[in-house]
Amino acid sequence: MLRQRTIRKPVHAIGIGVHSGDKVRMTLRPAGENTGISFVRTDVPASAPIRATAENVSDTTLSTSLGIAEVQVATVEHLMSALWGLGVDNLIVELSSEEVPIMDGSAAPFVYLINTVGIVEQRAFKQFIRIKREITVNQGDAVATLSPYQGFKAAYTFVADHPVYNRYPKIAALDFADTSYVDEVSRARSFGLIKELPQAQAINKMLGSSLENAVGIDDFAVMNDGGLRYEDEFVKHKLLDAIGDLYLLGRPILGAFNGYKSGHALNNKLARALLRCEDAWEMVTYQTPSEQVGQPILQPAAVSVS
Q: What is the mean pLDDT of the chain?
């Protein structure tokens, strides 16, 4: 059976919050089996840990935030995406401010940070959410769907009519049975039109945004030195976000995700809709190839989603 994972030892990073512009110290710590991912605000004395769950999502304006009562943790999606990509099940994330540091705007720095200390297997079996029937949600003309699939694949259609966006692919479809998340997705950065920045800053968002942590786009070109990291970096970042948002289900998915114009709000709506429809999924463990001879690949798991 595949087993749960955590990191070998604590690791630290310092960065800024892309929305607040504030400096933040982040510490990742190992966590016990079956505890999941949780966030702790070290600047808020005696505050309770905030579990990384779809139900705890408190805001989806330009990023995904978690909250319990008045205590919030913002911009969790890139870190959550990296944790999914590395198969990390259990982790404590300590933050000295409200926001996860944006780093370079992608998940790659989090991947690198975790790999510097290493990942260890735990005794408990890894649990998966297997999609049994299709679940679809929409918001206007945006649509997000989860459907049955033996593995995990994700597709996204990015819809934006702009001279720069129109030069690059707007559709990505990846099957992670034969695609490396680290190589093909993790380096895709946040992006935006420079002319839209004042509007975001007027609502106290993107105050820490710069070309060091996002791809900037003017009327005619990508403004960053070196251009894009992938030809389809824009749509791949949307996939990166969706993977992080869906990992707030608490376990990795066995199924297929398809997003058309979906963003953080619709991704969370999809996760919550799935959890409400108990006949649409089941919890399973997954055997390694050497264990599959003469046995079913999937086994019912003993622990339900919480």
A: 94
The three-state DSSP-derived secondary structure of the chain is: CCEEEEECCCEEEEEECCCCCCEEEEEEEECCCCCCEEEEECCCCCCCCEECCHHHEEECCCCCEEEECCEEEECCHHHHHHHHHHCCCCEEEEECCCECCCCCCCCHHHHHHHHHHCEEEEEEECEEEEECCCEEEEECCEEEEEECCCCEEEEEECCCCCCCHHHCCCEEEEECCCCCHHHHCCCCCCEEEHHHHHHHHHCCCCCCCCCCCCEEECCCCECCCCCCCCCCHHHHHHHHHHHHHHHHHCCCEEEEEEEECCCHHHHHHHHHHHHHCHHHEEEEEECCHHHCCCCCCEEECCCCCC
By annotation, the residues acting in catalysis are: 264
Residue 197 in contact with residue 113, Cβ under 8 Å? no
Domains and CATH numbers, the chain: 3-125 (3.30.230.20), 128-300 (3.30.1700.10)
| Cβ-contact 206, 18 below 8 angstroms | yes
**Residue 134 pLDDT > 50, yes or no?**
yes
Decide if pLDDT at 299 tops 80: no
- Stretch 72-82: mean pLDDT, rounded? 98
pTM of the complete model beyond 0.85: yes
Give the integer Cα–Cα distance in Å for 209 and 23: 13
On the question of pLDDT at 46 being above 80, the answer is yes
**pLDDT reading at 256 higher than 70:** yes
Q: Which tens digits make up the pLDDT trace of 78-124?
A: 999 999 999 999 999 999 999 999 999 999 999 999 999 999 999 99
| Nearest CA among 237, 259, 264 for reference residue 135 | 259
Tokens 């963003």 map to which residue?
A: 263
Is it the case that residue 14 has pLDDT exceeding 90?
Answer: yes
